Each structure stands twice: as C-alpha cells, then as structure tokens.
Amino acid sequence: MAVNVRAAVGGVAGELFGLERVRIAVHDATNLERDLESLGRALWAAHIRAVLDAAGHSAEPPPIGWRAAQYVAQRGYITATGRSEDGSVTISARGMRHWRITIAQDGRAATIEEAANALLREHQRQITVLKRAIWHPSSDRAPLRSGPLVPAVSAGRAGN
C-alpha cells in the first residue's frame, strides 16, 4: 500500500513517497545528522501509522501463525544501509527505528536524498529476502546437481 507522509524536525523537513522515494529540505539545522536521524524515525512512524489507518487498524495486529510471528520478530533486526553516490552521506537503520547518519562533507539535500533512497531500496530488498526465507524457504535454494561437492547417486547403487 503506497502512502505519502511528511514530517519536520529541527532544521529539516522531508516527504516519504510510499517506499520508493524521499525528498529532503534542509533549512537551518544546527546538528544536521541528529535532525536527520530524528526525521527518519518520524517519517517511518508516520508511514506505519498511515498504512495502519488505511487498513482500519489503530495498531499493528498481532501476528497469526508461527511464520508471521517469526517475520515480525526478525524484521526488527534488519539493518539497511544507503550511501550517496559520492560516498559523502551514509544512512543506516536497524529495524527502521534506530538510525545513524554520517555526513563527511557538505550535507546537500540531493546527496542526503540519494543515501535515503538507497537505504529504502536496501531495506525493501532485505524484507523480500526475509519473507522468502520464512514463507518460501525452498525457493532460495539452488537445486542440487552432480559435481565434485555433491556426488551423483544412481538408483540402486546408493552407498558406493
């Protein structure tokens, strides 16, 4: 479900467009990294609230079944990192709750957005891998084939 949300913290403001793109505006941040970390948490919380509201929930419903419980438990440990193309901005988030932003050079909005968008892509990639591992565990495994590490076993000749 794609929802768009906005937030402002300190000297920065941002918009999250679904899980696809972030737009950042830097106004007058005295501690840019800290303000951006707070903005990341605020945008993610607003996104979750908007998704839950759209689904008619006031809070995340409890997981139903062991797979859903495992997914919810492991989702909180996903650590995603995004970097700007020039490497000057790095954004990491664990469980999308604990944020760490480092800015090596000038914190231009465009480089911050590059890093934030890379983080979103990496987070979604890891979510997809987690879902596959829990709900479709065999789809991540390559089929066994004959080779030096997996010897061929002929019918009726097992144990040779």
Please give a structural write-up.
With 160 residues, the protein is an alpha+beta fold. It is built from three helices and six strands, in the order E-E-E-H-H-E-E-E-H. A three-stranded antiparallel β-sheet has the order 1-2-3. Strands 4-5-6 form a three-stranded antiparallel β-sheet. Strand 4 and strand 5 form a beta hairpin. Helix 2 runs antiparallel to helix 3 (109-135). The radius of gyration is 21 Å and the shape is globular.
Task: Give the spatial strand order of the biggest sheet.
Answer: 1-2-3
The structure class reads: alpha+beta
Which segments are poorly predicted (pLDDT under 50) over 5 or more consecutive residues? Answer: 142-160
**Could you state the order of secondary-structure elements as H and E?**
EEEHHEEEH
Characterize the main sheet.
Answer: 3 strands, antiparallel
Strand percentage, roughly? 15-25%
- Label the overall shape: globular
Gist of the model:
This protein has 160 residues and is α+β, with helices and mostly antiparallel strands. Helix content is 38%, strand content 22%.
